[in-house]
Write a structure and sequence with these properties.
The protein is an alpha+beta fold. Helices cover 19% and strands 41% of the residues.
Length: 115
């Protein structure tokens, strides 16, 4: 099911366990839905954060699909959501006008050899 949505809130940073992640909150016609919580980096030696191809690609492709230049611009933007029947979860995030989609599963498969 495809629905138009407004990005109401965002978080990019570390969760309560020190894991680099992001979360998005969307407003739909019939309510709200969240998306995110995915690990964006691999723990490095001595607990230092080591960036991953998946994490960088996940962040920047989201910005490109929504059509903006920075994370801070996400809040208030409109997009399309491809949602599982029955109100969730979000499968993909799409550009509001163009046929361009953000799919974390596809990004993971494409970048998995670089992890």
């Amino acid at each position: 099911m495809i629905e138009n949505a407004k990005i109401m809130d965002t978080m990019l940073g570390f969760d309560e366990h020190g894991i680099a992640t992001f979360n998005l909150q969307f407003e739909l016609e019939l309510g709200c839905i969240g998306y995110g919580g995915y690990v964006l980096y691999s723990p490095g030696v001595n607990g230092k954060c080591t960036g991953s191809a998946f994490g960088c690609t996940a962040i920047f492709e989201l910005l490109q699909v929504v059509g903006i230049d920075s994370w801070e611009q996400l809040k208030g933007k409109y997009c399309r959501l491809d949602i599982e029947e029955g109100r969730g979860p979000v499968k993909r995030i799409g550009n509001l006008v163009k046929d361009r989609w953000y799919d974390l599963g596809e990004i993971f498969e494409r970048t998995r050899s670089a992890i």
